Amino acid sequence: MDSSPQLRHILEAMADNDPTKLPTPSACVADEDFCLVPIGTPTASVSKEVAEVQRLLKKSGIKYSMHSAGTTIEGSWDQCMTIIGQCHSMLHANGVVRIQTTMRVGTRTDKKQSFDDKVAAVEKLLAEDK
Amino acid sequence: MDSSPQLRHILEAMADNDPTKLPTPSACVADEDFCLVPIGTPTASVSKEVAEVQRLLKKSGIKYSMHSAGTTIEGSWDQCMTIIGQCHSMLHANGVVRIQTTMRVGTRTDKKQSFDDKVAAVEKLLAEDK
Amino acid sequence: MDSSPQLRHILEAMADNDPTKLPTPSACVADEDFCLVPIGTPTASVSKEVAEVQRLLKKSGIKYSMHSAGTTIEGSWDQCMTIIGQCHSMLHANGVVRIQTTMRVGTRTDKKQSFDDKVAAVEKLLAEDK
Amino acid sequence: MDSSPQLRHILEAMADNDPTKLPTPSACVADEDFCLVPIGTPTASVSKEVAEVQRLLKKSGIKYSMHSAGTTIEGSWDQCMTIIGQCHSMLHANGVVRIQTTMRVGTRTDKKQSFDDKVAAVEKLLAEDK
After folding, report:
1. Which fold has domain C26-127?
2. Residue A54 and which of A6, C6, C35, C64 are 20 to 30 A apart at CA?
3. How far is the CA of B30 from the CAs of A30, B36, B62, B64, B73, in angstroms?
């Protein structure tokens, strides 16, 4: 979301008149966090599928970070959503018939904050405890 | 996801070679369920923002259903994701500086199942109890 | 959360001194919404498992409402969480080796608001459009 | 979930007869991942609240790991859920009137898998790519 006053006016007018014509946010900074679960696979292990997702993310060039309960990515709304959709398509192509993904997506207009910045902000507060 | 054998082959090859070129799923059948939370607003009430989202959904023409803990929409991956992105953009344009949305998104290739079908399948099983 | 001034003081002191001794919230009003997914089951259908969950909820006496992307329940924090844990235990006992549940849980201290109230508040705003 | 044949029988019988009497799972191994959002706070920053949650987790002695989009904890179902409920109570006591938490909770009976194990399993697969 650009903060130039002119663009702001245009976006406000669109939001009032026809929000279905609005662009999607230019940044999902810091917390598009997703966790993809294959359903109806013969095994309870999902590491194979998670590894395939990591390979796709690596190939895509997007900034990403895997943790034990999901993967966080950082980019524009459309970039983030397209890549997760491609993960679904890839696993479907590989034979997984049903997939459920849960996501937490954050956007903000007051500042740019990468996922490293977010963790750093909390760690700074915790460091003051000592 | 089309099930024609030819398209399947193409998708499988893309999944192997370069999944970042794959199309996103053509259908998020039945459970793109999302819940949008504004952060840093002066009041604990979110009904104003939820109402704005419902108006946008209505205007967009997408199939949707509001429940007390979110809204379920049904369409192609890109349609669903674009509309939710526009909800963020609209609220940002209206002055909300930070938004977090959580989603559950399901795709399947074995059958088309609308969100009404899903509830009906469970209710059919429960009806057999009597 | 009781709003009597005396109890507030006690809770504030506990929050400062040892929050690990705090009671859990007495109400998860309106949106403990959960969606349970079995992993490693032979079929992509989950309606059998969802039906079993509905039966348990009915038997428990808790207020609940199923929608296409999950089920919303209403009660104290411990009641809500215990019941969802029992759903996991029940499905495990029935042979499902792995389960993932996603939840949205809301608590508020400013007013009691049931899940019907939440939907009503939004519908009131939308009705004013006409 | 104990795997002794005797206990299995008892649990199966309870699941059939009255699942509302079942114990909750003894382990939420590896992915009780939660993200807590205060609603109606004057600022869009949530690092203060996240830091308070980290302090409570530290004090509680539970195994936990913060990442940029949430915190993962590991323990029995009741331990995990009670602590997150106490986080809500603590923030309420500190003046936050409304809180929404989203969680992904996993339980499995086929093996014990810590959150480090999960990441290691995926990284092992990825290492084989080279």
Report:
1. Alpha-Beta Plaits (3.30.70)
2. C35
3. 28, 19, 12, 10, 7
Q: What six digits make up the tokens of A65?
A: 């970070």
Contact B43 D38 (CB under 8 A): no
| Window from A105-119, C23-37, C99-113 with minimum mean pLDDT | C23-37
Radius of gyration of chain C (CA): 18
Measured from the Cβ of residue B2, the count of other Cβ atoms closer than 10 Å reads 11
Q: What is the mean pLDDT of residues A48-60?
A: 90
| Neighbour-count burial for A80-104, b at 16+ CB within 10 Å, e otherwise | bbbbbbbbbbbbbbbebbbbbbbbb
| Cross-chain CB nearest to C125 (options B31, B51, B69) | B51
Q: Is B95 left (phi over 0), alpha (psi -120 to 50) or beta?
A: left
Beta bridge partners of D38: D99
| Contact: C99, D110; criterion CB under 8 Å | no
Please answer yes or no on whether A69 and D72 come within 8 Å at the CB atom: yes
Per-residue pLDDT at A8: 74
In B24-114, where does DSSP find H-type helix?
Answer: 47-60, 77-93
pLDDT reported for residue A31: 57
Residue by residue, DSSP assigns chain C as ----HHHHHHHHHHHHH-GGGPPPPS---S-EEEEEEEES-SSS--HHHHHHHHHHHHHHT-EEEEETTEEEEES-HHHHHHHHHHHHHHHHHTT--EEEEEEEEEEESS----HHHHHHHHHHHHHTT-
Of A39, A43, A97, the CB nearest to C37: A39
Q: What are residue A108's phi and psi, to 5 degrees?
A: -145, 150
pLDDT at position B54 is 92
Residues on chain B bordering chain D, Cβ-to-Cβ distance under 8 angstroms: 35, 37-46, 97-98, 100, 102
Residues in Cβ contact with A108 at an 8 Å cutoff, skipping those fewer than 6 apart = A29, B39, B97, B98, B99, D44
Report the distance separating Cα B18 and Cα C72, nearest Å: 40
Contacts of D30 in chain A (CB under 8 A): 68-69
Query: What ipTM was estimated for this complex?
Result: 0.86
For residue B77, the SS3 value is helix
Longest dimension (CA), chain D: 55
For A44, which of C43, C97, C102 is closest by C-beta distance? C97
Cα–chain-centroid distance for residue D69?
14
Q: Are B41 and D39 in contact (CB < 8 Å)?
A: yes
- Given a cut of 70, is residue A82 above it in pLDDT? yes
pLDDT top residue among B80 and C22:
B80
